[in-house]
Fold this sequence. Notes:
Elements: H1 3-21, H2 31-34, H3 39-55, H4 84-110, H5 115-126, H6 131-138, H7 142-164
Helix pairs in contact: 1-4, 1-5, 3-7, 4-7, 5-7
Amino acid sequence: MDTIEKCLSSTQDKIIEISRKNENQNILLAADICIRYDVVAYRKKIMRLFRRLLEKRYLSPEENIKVTSNYQENSHRNTPIHSAVEISVDSYIDSMLYENDVCQTLLVLATKFTFEEGIYFVYTFSLRKSEDDISNILKMSRTTLQKIKKSCIVKSWFELKKYCEDE
């Protein structure tokens, strides 16, 4: 299992667990607050963030990179030369740091969710379930789910917008 896959799958369980623990301390945002925000646009941006994170597991560093002993120091250069290996390793490390940062932010976000919001978040963004499926899981009508959805997405946006606006 890839590192991001481990991060996201363990984070899914933790989001639900944390939201269950904090359920009595958290409330849904009021409808008059949610209506001020573009929930549809935020949902799309958060979906794109998760799609990028999940796609990273298929994008590994270049396999054809070879380390050779032909590297020589050139004292005439003012800027350092970065080999394909260095660039690949730097990119991989940056990617891992970014993914870990996102996962940590998701855990912070979970402390602000009601249990239903935690379920909605995980099943929508990580597991990509439909709203019909989620309303069946939560045993509620789609109308009731819409209140949870809007509150969840607005709360999520404030924590995740720094990752969504990097596009």
